[in-house]
Amino acid sequence: MTQNQQAILDGLAALYPDAGPELHFTNPFETLVATILAAQCTDARVNQVTPALFRDYPDARAMAQAEPEDIFPYVKSCGFKSKAVNIVNASRMIMERFGGEVPSTLEELTQLPGVGRKTANVVLAFSFGIPAIPVDTHVFRVSNRLGLADALTVEETEQQLMALIPREQWSQAHHWMIYHGRRVCHSQKPDCAHCTLQPWCKAAHADRMINPKQEVKERARARKSIQA
Ligand code: SF4
């Protein structure tokens, strides 16, 4: 780890000592469902809909007996109908393959409909206490801007962050980057002028702002135009 990277991690820890999940959940099933709902939706919105949902469908057994049409009215403000379909189908698989309990390995979790690495890592980290770095859009952007990672995919970013950050800090470091992405290092208008990490930040000293999502899109466009 370089001195800059160490300074950045120390700076993030100092900025967000109480960083934690902003989604509300009390057990692995709720963590799983809330995280599925949070894709492309705000945590605040998810927190508005889950109390009624978990009151009426408190576990995988109850949810597995429902139809997506039963669930959609509860969650429609969180977006796509596919989320209701995935929640019901994931609950059915939990009942059929995992004895009604949310599984606790990455391999098993990612077999569930609608569950990718990020969602699985959230469940592992915050329901089972297994260190993980779920890479969402904020972690992807902020880690690559800061120079903690240098990658164009979330998978590569996750691998690089796990190699760099001490294992006991993985889950917390993920929260630090989400907090920083939401509060300071915004996607379109990062507030570099007021960012205390600016002295060590790679993007702040680059020719142009690093935006990994944008970079991926530009490269795909360039590839297409070469093939055309
Ligand atoms: S200096 Fe700018 S780009 Fe770097 S972390 Fe801070 S806000 Fe983001």
Number of domains: 2
Residue-averaged pLDDT: 92
What letter string, H or E per element, gives the SSE order?
HHHHHHHHHHHH
- The CATH H-level superfamily of the largest domain is Helix-hairpin-Helix base-excision DNA repair enzymes (C-terminal)
Structural class by sheet pairing and helices: mainly alpha
Helix content: 55-70%
Low-confidence stretches: none
Roughly how many Å apart are the termini? 42 Å
Number of helices: 12
Query: Which CATH first-tier class of the largest domain would you pick?
Result: Mainly Alpha
| Whole-angstrom Rg | 19 Å
Major sheet characteristics: none
Cofactors and ligands: iron/sulfur cluster
Instruction: Note the beta-strand portion.
Output: under 5%
Write down the CATH topology of the largest domain.
Endonuclease Iii, domain 2
Query: What CATH architecture of the largest domain would you give?
Result: Orthogonal Bundle
Number of DSSP E strands: 0
Shape: globular
